[in-house]
Amino acid sequence: MFGKWSGIALVAVCGAIWCASGVGCGPVKGPGNAGVAKKTYTRDEFTKAVVGKTGEQVIAAVGKPDHTSGVDSSNWFYRNVTTDAVTGKADFQVMIVFRNGVADRVVY
Prior knowledge:
Blueprint: H1 4-20, E1 41-42, H2 43-50, H3 55-62, E2 67-69, E3 75-79, E4 82-83, E5 93-99, E6 102-107
Parallel strand pairs: 1-4
Antiparallel strand pairs: 2-3, 3-5, 5-6
């Protein structure tokens, strides 16, 4: 009755509403890091600063994530905060994976 494009539009609208509700998608709510210059870390420095820490401890160490995803926001994403020591190039994005409320590993 509505056609293929209506179904796609419905999915897009539902996805936008879900993300806007703050249920594990999109930017972290609150004051965030707007206007704050981010420190740049080597991959080793960043990993040492976050692994084994709670979410609050991670925020204290490296700031709020640019966005989160996953069940209970279990994946935190930071952009342009780490560099690859081998190439010297900045990593576009790094992901911290939380398990049982603690940063378990970092994916570059």
